[in-house]
Structure prediction request, 271 residues.
Amino acid sequence: MELREILYEVGDDGVAVITLNRPERMNAFTARMIDEWAWAIEQARDDDRVRAVIVTGAGNRAFCAGMDVQQEASGEGVLRTTSAGPAERRNSLRYGVHKVPRALMLLDKPYIAAVNGVAVGAGMDMASMADIRFAADTARFGMAYVRMGIIPGDGGCYFLPRLVGIARALELIWTGDLFDARQALEWGYVSRVYPADELMKETRAFAARLAEGPSVAIQLAKRLLYRSLETDLDHALDLAQSAMAIAQSTEDAVEGPRAFVEKRKPVFKGR
Prediction:
């Protein structure tokens, strides 16, 4: 795919970086960006070189300002609210912005958001889809849908309460209030806050650390955690037993204990 609105690169450290690349529009997404974004996630999923993925925004103003409001107002945006009838709108999200969370459902590799600036509306939802969020001290967040007279349409009502709890999620969705990186850290919405000029360096170092780890075990743990959120304890334990059987069959499960006994750093191969 020819990339016009994102950048995608894979480093020698096993880390893939997806950069939303419309800084002049605060990285607001278009239908094309969504297609490219979902494509990049699928590339990272299928590339054995990639063991961790970072998503961030170009420039220093925004991670993602959500959908491009100017395009929406003209009826040419992701929702096509003025140019489409109800029958066409019915699947506008499913075949549009939902491509990103659906692609992420199949990504077992760590997916980390480096929130380098504003993340509002659907942009905040996109950050909420990450496994972990690191933020610049200049980052700002907000569920701005209510200001447009609409609701979170791309998973915000699913992801946000799992991160901050039901009451706080409803408060943020109902009010559309903005909050800063310090508040996000206090609420547990982000895991770490860094000075803006250190964010990518620190995020990359963390992702590279994961990439050096036993990737099969890391990916199995991610899958097990998310599936355990949706089931009862007995089923979760059965899933853990199955995942453990796979993890124990890897070369990394031999290397880990051996390195511990030999008092050296393990060299994991992801197999």
In short: The longest strand covers residues 15-20.
